[in-house]
Amino acid sequence: MKTVLAHALLASALALPLAATAGDFSPYVDAKGGISRPTDFRTNFVHLGSWAVLDEKSAARGLHDVYTEKASAEHYRKTGKFPDGATLVKEIRKLETGAMTTGDPVVWGSDTAVWFVMVKDAKGRFASNPQWGDGWGWAMFKADAPATNVAASYDADCKACHVPAAKTDRVFIQGYPTLIPH
Question: Could you report how far apart the first and last alpha carbons of the chain are, in Å?
Answer without folding.
Answer: 64
